[in-house]
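Standup notes
- HV: blocked on the assembly model, inputs below
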Amino acid sequence: MTDQAYNFAYLDEQTKRMIRRAILKGLAIPGYQVPFASREMPMPYGWGTGGVQVSAATLTPEDTFKVIDQGADDTTNAVSIRKFFQRTAGVATTEETDKATVIQTRHRIPETPLGEDQVLVYQVPIPEPLRFLEPRETETRKMHSLEEYGLMHVKLYEDISQHGAIATSYAYPVKVEGRYVMDPSPIPKFDNPKMADCPAIQLFGAGREQRIYALPPYTKVVSLDFEDHPFDPSKADHACDLCGAGESYLDEVITDDAGGRMFVCSDTDYCRARREAGHLGAQAAVMEEEAGA
Amino acid sequence: MIEIENVSKTFTLHNQGSAVIPVMEGATLSVQPGECVALIGASGAGKSTLMRMIYGNYLAASGRIMVGGIDVAQAKPRDILALRRQTLGYVSQFLRVVPRVPTLEVVAEPLLLVGENRDSALARAGDLLTRLNIPERLWGLSPTTFSGGEQQRVNIARGFAHTYPALLLDEPTASLDAQNRDTVLSLVEEAKDRGAAIVGIFHDEAARQRVCNREIDVTGFTPVAA
Amino acid sequence: MTPLLQVRDISKFYGARLGCRDVGFDLYPGEVMGIVGESGSGKSTLLGCLAGQLAPDTGEVLFDTRGEGPRDTLTMSEPERRMLARTDWAFVHQHAREGLRMGVSAGGNVGERLMAVGARHYGDIRGQAIDWLDRVEISEDRVDDKPTAFSGGMQQRLQIARNLVTGPRLVFMDEPTGGLDVSVQARLLDLLRGLVREMGLSAIIVTHDLAVVRLLADRLMVMKDGHVVESGLTDQVLDDPQHGYTQLLVSSVLQV
């Protein structure tokens, strides 16, 4: 079979229409989980099948596509999804955040602020924020429809009572436009504030769970908290050892068996762009040397 | 205060061939405030049955039982409960309480139920227990573990805690020693002095002589056919 | 005085089979009513209808709401009814695990109803939870333990604390002492009685245990085959039962 035998962006047109209707409904009711008939994709569940279907329904031939996995453009998952759409949709791809029109992401929001002409597609493993407290789907749906969200705070209460602080550090629940409580997918809570009042469209796709939800541009998104334990979008108290950025989300990298370690931006494109612009972190020289050696 | 007119009582034993047993007919009596009336008659003549009907514990088959302006024979449960709380006290022969509740609380409960403040209710309860020779070291314990005589005195203290305008006494002095018996009779006299209307069953002849104004023989209310 | 609950002509069928039929009564503030009957008599069906968990086929359940006076809870919207269920009502299940979140700490269990009505101050919520644990005789150092680590009696007391923390006015209880040891039952009954009096609660208690209703209930309804066969003052119904079934029920109790 040749590449031309694929329909544009792999999915057939009827399926894409079905997904687009779900996306539009999601945009019309921010934070509400819209059921959709998730298709089998040529990759296993858990590898971003939800995000891929949303991307497939969103991409046009003129789009420029970027994929990140934990902030990085060059991991297996990111590379394979990028190649998938290169091949099935023939779209241009990029690693630069500001050049992309559609960005599919797993577990991060890019550091570079997004604009009105961009769409951010999240891969979502478990869309239901109430799931771990109330396993019955019939009951959680009712709780959403009746706005009974006391249980969400029970989870945060349990955190504080066990750890002295809200220990939830990723997939930190948010309330959208004062109405629906939403799981932001497993992004670090550091990224939560970026969702609020964002000029870009944010779409969330859960393939195995067959749910799509969305945040239209400039949506009010508030992280849940207590008056005496306010939300804190903390990150490692460190600057990037490569580019010196003090405000970006960092990954800790173990560099040897002797306890050596370094903190680097999780957003590889952001870090690279800063270094190219001449910003240097504490261990940048060492790395350059090793690279040269 | 207590006006009983032409009251009858039958028991229907549905599980024994629906046998209907008439036990009382034409019971009529009246008790004025400050008066103590003794019910007399042989064992089984219906003294306790009549008392229980006045209290609303047994349903009367017909007739009127007016206590403090309410006809117990017709009243709704809610009105009888209010009557029992405010107006009509009953000292039965047996103490029936929730396990684990301290004696002092058991005695003070009727006062708390009518809205008496806690401190004065407990003070009154302690006062009564002292008079009835229940040692203070027992006040914090549940009376369920007490001897029969002690339980009876706790029961009496409870019955006299609130100053009910009408009182029913079922053998209050039975099996008490002389000193406690005297205390109980004093309590009855005090109740009369403050104007309570009392109906009592006393097997103890001397006690009856001391506190009762009149005697009514319930044998007169026994159905002829029975 | 307005009754807290006015129940009129409640009937519930399961297909052709009768759940309960033509049940009506008034419950006033501070009153405790017992419903007794054997398994299958319709008492649990009735309780479910009263507490908004089952939809009866006919009838009205008028609850005296704080804001708008008596309203039929069967015709009010589900959000309103659920709001009542977590503020003004409480439901104590026979099996604590039906009424508790077993994966959540004791404090979280008690705090949930507070958070559900908008409490957002951790310190206050925890303080109230500890205060309520104390009232049901669970020591403060168990506040972070999960109910799975509690005995049956403690779980039941925790369930009561969780239900009463929002100061409800009406408590539904389904066999609250069922399955507990006798000594544990006594402690629970004493606790319930104290709370009912202190808080001026109205309660409807479904049980087959006549000793429980004698101690807790002011009034009693006896059910058989879906019908109320007798009702009245608790002590009158138990000491001078009029209906054959009640007589059988009372005479069947083992004396100790």
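- HV (later): unblocked. The two ends of chain B are 31 Å apart (CA to CA). Chains B and A do not touch (no CB pair under 8 Å).
- Next: hand off to the docking folks.
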